[in-house]
Amino acid sequence: MIFRQLFDRVSCSYTYLVASHKQREALIIDPVLEHVDLYLTLLSELNLELRFAIDTHVHADHISGLAALREATECATVMGEMAQLGCTSINLRDGEQLQLGEITIQALYTPGHTDNSYCYFLLPDRIFTGDTLLIRGTGRTDFQNGDPKAQFDSLFNKLLLLPDETYIFPGHDYNGMTVSTIGEERNHNPRLQINSEEDYVLMMNSLVLDNPKMMDVALPANLKCGRQE
């Protein structure tokens, strides 16, 4: 398997490229519009064909590269079915899988940060958690139909049931961290050291956060897979 982790300094967003070494087919998770040329160059250098471009949710802090990648490569654009966007080629149900050569990736519906948040489990040992589970943190729940109760359920009744050695690759990091594991987050993530759903809701509702700087531009564009008028 070919794997690359790419970083956007403006939004502190991670983008991931995963590819089959044998079939030379690739997918990209959470592409940022400003870096599409970089992705295309990397695909060319590695002699890869882009099959799928995936967003974990409708982003508010950067414009998605889904539409631009589809126009450049004719790849399929993918989101979870709860996003309900007319611009996507494939709308995955909870538990549904994509196959990329010998690679299997499974969509897990994990609402809470938004009502259309999905994680993508690359079987058997790594998961791309978007903004649901971060390294030593969790995604905010105060806009885009976010719901701390739903996020508690997604975290404690879905993600934390995965094996402790499962690698976590988040959608963002603001402190220079690049990877963690389920077991590490269970033991050291301060937002997971709570005793009940009620305590988690109280903690999340007490946060005072500024809106993402690009929210007014990014959200309308990302409802069209990053296409701007």
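That was protein one. Protein two is written in the same sequence-then-structure order:
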Amino acid sequence: MAKKNLKSITVGFVSLGCPKNTVDSERMLAEIIQAGCLISSDPDDADVVVINTCGFIAPARQEAVETIKHAVDCKRKGSVKKIIVAGCMAERSGKGLFDEVEGIDAVVGLGQRDMIADIVKQTLSSGRQSVYLEPSSAAINDDRARLLITPRHWAYLRISEGCSHNCSFCTIPSIRGKLRSKPAELVLSEARELISSGVVELNIIAQDITSYGRDLGKKDSLPELLEKLSAIGGVRWIRLMYLYAAGLTDRLINTIRENEKILHYLDVPLQHVNSRILKDMKRPETKEKISRLIDKLRHLIPDIVLRTTLIVGFPGETEEEFQELLGFVERARFDALGAFKYCAEAGTPAASMPGQIPQEVKQQRMDRLMLTQQAVVFEKNKGRIGTKLTCLIDAADAGAGRGRFYGQAPDIDSICIIRGCTAAKGTFADVKITGTKDYDLTARQIR
């Protein structure tokens, strides 16, 4: 498409959802910019608003619906001309979105991500609603040439699409298809591109990064990929996100322990610990396997930082089984923990299971779980007072800085608030921890 055709078009862009969705948003923004459009600093005042949505669970869909309705209000006032809804919610609902929220002009599925600039033009010139949905379950996206919406010194690196696990509560395989691993050379090419643009921290993501290569007949191939990534000059930190517990092999653990660029930080979503519930979730772990894994990790990598995600209120969860989960959290002493109230998602096996838990019970259990975890974190943070750490600086202004040590992932974890910070954004600084502020650490820079 000739750039002159789109030069006068302003596009407002809203990105919702997980890091995988962020990567898709960055690719779409790059396509829009390369086509000659202007990205509006105010999505409420643009020719076209593109909303890249999440459709994983009900709260995410509700956030998307509210965002769309806000754009529709702007359209009715005349400050916005057209509204395009893309991403997982668009893929899941298709043309049904037109009935769910009036005022949408186009629905764009995951397989049409790289056609977004053409779709913007077509939508702006069309007087009818349009649907762009084609099968995407066999596609392997090329995520090179992105316009980063993360700070320029860190980025997400997606190594595969989809998921071949069959967790009974999850909609991801039905939305994004089965596992499709990117060829290693494509992953390495993208990593080089990100590093050449100034990225020093690569956050490795997928639905489950430990499954990388299995669809290609290669078992336990993540360690080999990580070794190749760490050999690229310029990368300082490699962070591993979304690891299936059953996929943490001895070879992978040893690679994490021995490779100085791979951070001693693991994000391992466990979902629960009760063996009966795990079986109903169609997870391969048991309480005993999980406990042995945590003990092994802490024995082999003493400074390991562990993050997990749990679900409360899964169908049939008894008070006794929830108490078992609370006790496990107290003993496991995770450094960070996220939790969800179970949502009955249409089309998933768990949605039709007996013993659905009332919403008020789910909320009570969520509150009790997070208070239990809060006590663990506050105690662990106090134990860091007086220690010296190296921080990657995310912001610095007039001697006040915000940074993260290796045990703090961007956007989801706590931060270090640094007094006397003279280091520039995107560089590393040695600090001494001086105190705590809620979940965050306070520090001063060591010169």
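The mean pLDDT is 94. Keep this in mind for the problem set.
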